[in-house]
């Protein structure tokens, strides 16, 4: 299923979900898209209707004998459809559907018990609604085998517990726009090496995984500025990361501390009580030294002075990879800007720099366009 604004996922979307998230978790069948409303507004109506559609589709698979304990129905949900799946789990559980008959794989889940925004903002309890009408609460339950993947600083799925820390809150909001759209842009290693988060029950059916971020979303837009953008971001990043992570109750981790399966709402304290000012000052001192060293490295890096160099940086390379997979169905993105390889190898910028040079020479090399669409360049006779 798609996220908000994507009622029926494209073939590239389905293939990306299948290859990146379903098959590594045991799926061996043929992935198909399912239509669900996925409306921005009213969100509550969209979720309720979508949950009913999904429950009916799952029950149909089980009733027809196509699914069962040895061949469970696999469900992939992203963003709104991930949160919606939590409602479906409740319906299926109360209908008596066996736990082993369904396997959920969720990414960017706003209903994460500890970090999902629809639970974090449910501090008054009751039946409150988000700005678009989406009902708060209904955290993901532990009724069916479920694997939940969250990217660090994704403000929908990884919202800080201490929102009075404005840096942390602003960073999470930036992550809603820059990080939340990147789940299909990750590499195989990013997903395989995701950190398994603590839960209260080691035998829980639900596994929560955190994918660490290389950069802070709040600083990512700085990197759009050639020459000075990346060095300045590198200088500020370590110190700002300490301050941002305080909003999650940590100095080193950008996700809420405590078991991932325990429903948690925001705290109105400015700082977590378990971290002293001495610890904060020591962390900031070390971070400043690290930032100075990182800024010097950026100044010494030739790609810093290249106008399109920011495409080698996170999150831009990840977002570009996601676009190639979803919109062009290129499941191994290595074309324009070097794809994922460029994020770790500055030499990956060579194709694009050659293209810029060809423009200056008056003989533009457009072979990268044919690479994207899988075409052969035909030379004129």
From TrEMBL:
Span of the signal peptide: none
Residue intervals of the PE-PPE domain: 44-248
SUPFAM superfamilies in alphabetical order: alpha/beta-Hydrolases
Short name of any one Pfam family annotated for the protein: PE-PPE
Stated name of the protein: PE-PPE domain-containing protein
Species, as recorded: Mycobacterium novum
């Amino acid at each position: 299923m798609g996220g908000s604004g994507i009622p029926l996922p494209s073939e590239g979307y389905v293939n990306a979900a299948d290859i990146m998230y379903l098959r590594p978790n045991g799926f061996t069948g043929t992935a198909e898209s399912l239509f669900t409303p996925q409306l921005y507004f009213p969100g509550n109506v969209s979720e309720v209707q979508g949950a009913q559609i999904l429950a009916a589709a799952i029950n149909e698979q089980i009733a027809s004998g196509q699914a069962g304990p040895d061949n469970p129905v696999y469900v992939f949900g992203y963003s709104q459809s991930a949160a919606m799946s939590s409602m479906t789990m409740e319906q299926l559980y109360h209908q008596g559907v066996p736990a082993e008959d369904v396997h959920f794989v969720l990414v960017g889940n706003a209903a994460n018990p500890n970090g999902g925004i629809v639970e974090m903002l449910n501090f008054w309890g009751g039946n409150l609604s988000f700005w678009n009408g989406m009902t708060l609460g209904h955290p993901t339950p532990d009724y069916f085998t479920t694997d939940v993947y969250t990217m660090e600083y994704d403000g929908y799925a990884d919202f800080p517990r201490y929102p009075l820390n404005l840096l942390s809150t602003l960073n999470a909001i930036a992550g809603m726009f820059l990080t939340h759209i990147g789940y299909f842009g990750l590499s195989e290693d990013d997903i395989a090496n995701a950190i398994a988060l603590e839960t209260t029950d080691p035998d829980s059916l639900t596994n929560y995984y955190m994918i660490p971020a290389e950069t802070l979303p709040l600083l990512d837009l700085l990197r759009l500025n050639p020459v000075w953008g990346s060095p300045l971001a590198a200088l500020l990043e370590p110190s700002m990361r300490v301050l941002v992570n305080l909003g999650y109750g940590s100095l080193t981790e950008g996700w809420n501390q405590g078991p991932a399966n325990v429903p948690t709402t925001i705290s109105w304290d400015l700082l977590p009580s378990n971290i002293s000012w001495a610890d904060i000052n020591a962390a900031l001192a070390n971070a400043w030294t690290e930032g100075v060293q990182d800024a010097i490295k950026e100044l010494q890096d030739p790609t810093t002075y290249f106008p399109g160099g920011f495409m080698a940086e996170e999150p831009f390379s990840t977002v570009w990879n996601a676009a190639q997979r979803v919109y062009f169905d290129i499941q191994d993105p290595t074309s324009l800007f070097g794809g994922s390889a460029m994020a770790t190898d500055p030499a990956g910028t060579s194709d694009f720099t050659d293209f810029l040079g060809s423009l200056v020479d008056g003989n533009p090399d457009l072979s990268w366009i044919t690479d994207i669409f899988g075409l052969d360049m035909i030379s004129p006779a």
